[in-house]
Design goal:
Layout lengths: L5 E4 L9 H16 L3 E6 L9 H14 L8 E2 L4 H13 L3 E4 L3 H13 L25 E4 L6 E6 L3 E6 L7 E3 L7 H11 L4 E5 L3 H14 L5 E5 L2 E2 L15 H6 L4 H9 L13 H7 L10 E2 L2 H14 L2 H10 L4 E2 L2 E2 L6 H17 L3 H8 L12 H6 L2 H16 L5 H14 L4 H13 L7 H21 L1
Parallel strand pairs: 1-2, 2-3, 9-10, 11-12
Antiparallel strand pairs: 4-5, 5-8, 6-7, 13-14
């Protein structure tokens, strides 16, 4: 019987959950879901100087916003340091590790000699086979893994294929520092083994680490998990992803009005594909996700493509769900007042009436907010510069002629206001836009808005007429 699939996401709590980390978490989450398994969260907080509680909170909040749930409680790597030391003691007892008494100066001299001889700066094994009785007094040793010196370490990777590492290039890595603290490559192996991790999916910048870590697995007689090293994310120019490309925390994308389902959709395509499909539901991603769709090449981050995918998800979103995400992005405090305070039942009804029209033009929740802003404006409206230009003296006079017709309209619908305005334009021998544009400016204070007849419907007869009268008085 096959064991349950267990993946893990193991960030370092030294900052926010950046976009590359979010993609790694997403891949692990999808693989676990696709295979009926579970994803664990391990906080790799052994760097005590740089690890912060605020960063841990930001990572957890980022995963929560992305909708990437993990199983059980987060595991602190630092809290397991005694277990790591136990494994080091076992490796020493079995002859698979040894104490190294080299001083920092000796190690520096070793590296400089290697460079002078045009060799890779590797540890030369000075203490590998020396008798411990030769240990200098008062020097605390580091512990090194006794790695094979000939042949190759071969890594069978689900994405990169067969990867070979000459053992002469791996040397005897330190697994515990002279201060008694385990190193990353030791702690990761022990934690993954003890947590029952069966699949390790991470960036391909960890390939060399994977080779080194496999030596620890072998030395302990443990099964090596399935490895899958995914391509890194680059900027549109092919350079390493930086803040100017979009290497921001996921909370920045939340604040920019992106939907978590759109972020999942966009990120899954950075290194994985399902044919030519571009837009996925989460259910489809779970159904289709696997190693066979992964690409070896680095993926390129593209804000424009993200925005387009977000727009598609907004148009496809249920209006009620979109409303909930819209208000979650609030409060936007304006003029000392929270917009949340302005949303009563009547205002919510207006928002829901406007939602189908507004979301068709919106690519982000911020666009949605801008499209709905006319609902929150107080009379008399402050006109944007372009809107003010549309309300010339002739335009105001025209609106003055239009108001009585609106007042006489008994059935206030999109169709009835549409018919009224079109008839009015024909009678005045004007193109529809010559009427609709000043009408939009007077009703919203802006030169762009949802469809003008949607605006009339949502505002209602009384409010629409009142806003028009404000502008001609």
């Amino acid at each position: 019987m096959c064991s349950q699939v267990v993946t893990r996401f193991a960030p370092s709590p030294t900052g926010y959950l950046h976009i590359g980390g979010a993609r790694t978490a997403l891949f692990n989450w999808l693989y676990a879901k696709a295979n009926g398994g579970k994803m664990l969260l391990r906080i790799e907080d052994t760097d005590r100087e740089r690890s912060t509680d605020a960063a841990i909170d930001a990572i957890v909040a980022g995963l929560d916003w992305m909708g990437l749930s993990y199983d059980g409680d987060p595991i602190s790597q630092h809290s397991r340091v005694e277990r790591h030391r136990q494994v080091v003691d076992q490796l020493l007892a079995d002859g698979n590790a040894y104490r190294c008494y080299c001083t920092p100066d000796e190690l520096t001299e070793m590296r400089e000699k290697a460079r002078a001889e045009k060799r890779a700066p590797r540890y030369d094994g000075t203490w590998r086979d020396r008798d411990p009785s030769e240990a200098p007094a008062g020097v605390k040793p580091a512990i090194r893994l006794k790695a094979p010196q000939q042949g190759e370490t071969i890594l069978e990777d689900q994405v990169q294929g067969t990867v070979r590492f000459p053992n002469k290039d791996l040397d005897d890595m330190i697994i515990m520092r002279s201060d008694g603290n385990p190193t990353y490559n030791l702690a990761v192996v022990v934690d993954d083994h003890d947590m029952g991790v069966t699949v390790i999916m991470r960036g391909d910048d960890h390939l060399t680490n994977a080779a080194r870590q496999s030596l620890v697995y072998k030395a302990m007689g443990w099964d090596i998990p399935t490895m899958a090293h995914i391509p890194l994310i680059h900027g549109p120019d092919g350079a390493k992803l930086s803040k100017r490309h979009g290497a921001l925390g996921v909370e920045a994308y939340r604040d920019m009005g992106y939907l978590p389902e759109a972020m999942r959709n966009y990120l899954v395509r950075l290194g994985w594909a399902h044919g030519d499909d571009e837009v996925f539901s989460t259910e489809q991603m779970i159904e289709w996700f696997g190693f066979d769709g992964m690409n070896k090449a680095a993926a390129r981050f593209d804000f424009k493509k993200l925005e387009n995918i977000n727009g598609i998800h907004m148009r496809n979103a249920d209006d009620n769900a979109l409303y909930e995400q819209f208000i979650a992005l609030l409060p936007f405090v304006e003029d000392g007042q929270s917009m949340l305070d302005l949303i009563d039942d009547a205002k919510k009804k207006q928002i829901m009436m406007a939602m189908p029209s507004v979301k068709e033009r919106a690519k982000t929740l911020l666009d949605l907010k801008a499209g709905l802003a006319f609902l929150f404006d107080t009379r008399p409206l402050a006109l944007e510069e372009k809107a003010a230009k549309l309300l010339s003296d002739d335009a105001r006079a025209m609106l003055g002629d239009l108001i009585p017709r609106f007042e006489q309209l008994t059935d206030w619908t999109i169709d009835s206001t549409d018919a009224l305005v079109r008839t009015f334009a024909e009678e005045k021998e004007l193109k529809l836009g010559k009427v609709a544009q000043p009408l939009r400016a007077a009703l919203t204070g802006r030169s762009t808005s949802p469809g003008i007849f949607d605006v009339l419907l949502v505002l209602g007869k009384d409010e629409s007429i009142a806003r028009l009268k404000d502008q001609i008085s």
